[in-house]
Amino acid sequence: MRILLAEDNNTSAQTILPVLVHAGLHVDVTDTGRGAIEMLRNYNYGLVIVELFLPDMDGYDFIASLRARKIQTPIVILSAIDKPHSKIKAFSIGADDYLTKPFDPEELVARVQAILRRSNGYSQPVTEVGNMALDLNQHTVSVAGVPVHLTGKEFAILELLVLRKGISLTKEALLNHLYGGHDEPDIKIIDVFVCKLRKKLQAAGAGNLISTIWGRGYVLNDSQPKKTVANRISPATHYQENRVPQLQAAGE
């Protein structure tokens, strides 16, 4: 899952960043509130972590500005102020959590993971789709109890499809989820990743969980869908899809 960290203290950022990355989170960093707002307006993030006092605005104004723009991204506030009124104010205007500095980075990771699960409708770290189990905390996948090895990009795609189960995701949304607007390769790379992901899951016995919505993107369902006009594969399309693995899958 891709998240945003808005922190102007370089020492603090360098302490937090590796712990988040080690937990399997993709993190973009900015040191201003306006920079964070602009990034949240243009890209899809699962969560934003914000220092309460940034150089250009305080966290309260940041929260109010986001919510006024109808941006509902979960917000975690970091602050050296451990006063009830500060926490109450943050929660009352739209913050989802508040951590007081100094804090244990591992606790931050646990809170972030819990908020990401809850914001996507999951109370437990392990979610099952058919006979496939995906652990959102450990970043592991198994089918009928047997581990399935996925690359980082493959897991990131499966993670988003699971969290948005039943909702079609465009290739642009998946590309943004993987790269966050930074050094993005050709959008055809998504077809490569999805094709390899499908083959690994099918080989493990999970069936065809990922359906193609032609002209729209991909969707993950509990079971293999019935053939309809929307997902019927023509011979020409089938030929093209079989050619996908021959493309260069850069960035894994």
From TrEMBL:
BP GO annotations: regulation of DNA-templated transcription
Listed EC numbers: 3.1.1.61
Keywords: DNA-binding, Hydrolase, Phosphoprotein, Transcription, Transcription regulation, Two-component regulatory system
SUPFAM superfamilies recorded: CheY-like (SSF52172)
Signal peptide bounds: none
Gene3D superfamilies: 3.40.50.2300, 6.10.250.690, Winged helix-like DNA-binding domain superfamily/Winged helix DNA-binding domain (1.10.10.10)
Domain Response regulatory: 2-116
Annotated ranges, domain OmpR/PhoB-type: 124-222
Superkingdom of the source species: Bacteria
GO cellular component terms listed in the entry, alphabetical order: cytosol; protein-DNA complex
GO molecular function: phosphorelay response regulator activity; protein-glutamate methylesterase activity; transcription cis-regulatory region binding
DNA-binding region, residues: 124-222
PANTHER family: REGULATOR OF RPOS (PTHR48111:SF22)
Protein's name according to its UniProt entry: Regulator
Organism field: Acetobacter senegalensis
Chain's gene name: ctrA
